[in-house]
Specification:
single chain; 7-stranded mixed β-sheet; 4-stranded mixed β-sheet; 14 helices; 16% strand; globular; Adenosylmethionine-8-amino-7-oxononanoate aminotransferase
């Protein structure tokens, strides 16, 4: 039963206070939130008050009740440097002194050009064409359009389906939802109204596991059977993120690359969660030595400061689309190449490359492996796995999210469990002491979940 709503008079007073310049007290924030806001993957009404974040600095969130907690989630995997980072703050302030935004249609600007140059330098060759998008979901919409428009430009309108493996997650918009897991995924409710793509089973688990030749044969057979109707293969490389935090052997990406080359398909890799070092490689596809035709990145692109994503493709793919009937890629977000976000993204990339990010991620991986090991012996724990700055405790039952979150908060750590998973993706700036605290909180959360 949801909590009773506040009286109209009290809410009127709260809204009046919100229109002013003074701070709102936590009770007013809670009332206004309950009355008017709808949180992601949450019912419109709720019983419990949510923690109110008043400020953030380093790897810590300061709550309105005075507590400080370590962020074990990097704000949904984006804030890789932490909060109030001097270099990123300075980039934001400097760009605000020039302009916060200008349309990208028919115009260009220096921050976008600088960001494109950095992305081309970072990404594996020959990914040299950059389309700047609003968010990860939008980036996947663009990537899908690239694949479909390429086939239209080549006079193959019948090649309009995509092949992917089950267990994936690519975003919340309709094109992206259509390549998420259609049965067990978050978007299965929409399956009847989404385009029907081709799904194969998720790859066998284990980053270090040998390739399962039976599974490879299944992949080959599925692609061959549907080749005449396929435009691309779309997957998350090495780590399937929000679909279940599954890890698979990089060698399967090499198989997909071979199949795309054999059947004239594009290989589209979704690195929105894994890009910029999260798995221990700058891009997860580097674990396989594979270069996709289309690469989508986001989340950590701006260090968690602003929403922005990017789609990179080869010049060949861009030229093929340019030779088609439309002559252009049919997409153009209003806030495409936002100068403020682009400036911050440039600063975030520079900061990443200035530090020994690979050593930081390796240190975090070693700390996660050691300090999460006690969770393996807990009742109900089915698996424990670590890759780069990702630590996952998988249960044999759905998580009691409220109990697990409360247990972690009691130990000074913010996490966000889901499904049967208690997991963390801490900022790269997390030191060893804070990492140990995070792991202790994860073990405590798994014990009560």
């Amino acid at each position: 039963m949801a909590a009773s709503p506040s009286s109209p008079a009290l809410l009127d007073a709260d809204r009046a206070a919100a229109r002013g310049d003074g701070p709102l007290d936590p009770a007013a924030i809670d009332r206004l939130d309950r009355a008017h806001l709808w949180h992601p993957y949450a019912p419109p009404e709720r019983d419990a008050a949510l923690p109110v974040v008043a400020a953030a600095q380093g790897v810590r969130l300061t709550l309105a009740d005075g507590r400080t907690v370590i962020d074990g989630m990097s704000s949904w995997w984006a804030a890789i440097h932490g909060y109030r980072v001097p270099q990123l703050d300075a980039a934001a302030r400097g760009q605000l002194d020039r302009m916060a935004h200008v349309m990208f249609g028919g115009l260009t600007h220096e921050p976008a050009v600088r960001l494109a140059a950095r992305l081309v330098d970072l990404a594996p060759d020959p990914l040299r064409r950059v389309f700047l998008a609003d968010s990860g979901s939008v980036a996947m919409e663009v990537a899908i359009k690239v694949a479909l428009q390429r086939q239209l430009s080549r006079g193959r309108p019948g090649r309009h389906r995509l092949l992917t493996w089950r267990g994936g997650y690519h975003g919340d918009t309709f094109g992206a939802m259509a390549v998420c897991d259609p049965v067990g995924g978050m978007h299965h409710l929409f399956a009847p109204v989404l385009p029907e793509h081709v799904f194969v089973d998720a790859p066998p688990p284990g980053v270090d596991a040998p390739l399962d030749e039976g599974y490879v044969s299944t992949l080959r057979a599925a692609v061959a059977r549907h080749a005449d109707e396929l435009a691309a293969i779309v997957v998350e490389p090495v780590v399937q993120g929000a679909g279940g935090m599954r890890f698979h052997a990089p060698g399967y990406l090499r198989v997909l690359r071979e199949l795309c080359d054999e059947h004239d398909l594009l290989l589209v890799l979704d690195e929105i969660a894994t890009g910029f070092g999260r798995t221990g490689a700058l891009f997860a596809c580097e674990h396989a030595g594979v270069v996709p035709d289309v690469l989508a990145v986001g989340k950590a692109l701006t260090g968690g400061y602003c929403t922005m994503a990017a789609v990179l493709c080869t010049d060949r793919v861009a030229e093929e689309i340019g030779r088609g009937e439309a002559g252009v890629l049919m997409h153009g977000p209003t806030f495409m190449a936002n100068p403020l976000a682009a400036s911050i993204a440039c600063a975030s990339i520079d900061l990443l490359l200035e530090r020994d990010w690979a050593a930081d991620v390796a240190r975090i991986a070693a700390g996660l492996r050691a300090a999460l090991e006690p969770a393996r012996a807990l009742p109900g724990v089915a698996d424990l796995r670590v890759l780069g700055a990702i630590g996952v405790v998988q249960l044999d039952h759905p998580v009691d999210v409220a109990a697990a979150t409360a247990a972690a908060l009691e130990r000074g750590v913010w996490i966000r469990p889901f499904r049967d998973l208690v997991y963390v993706m801490p900022p790269y700036a997390t030191d060893d002491e804070d990492l140990a605290t995070i792991c202790a909180a994860v073990c405590a959360a798994a014990a009560v979940a």
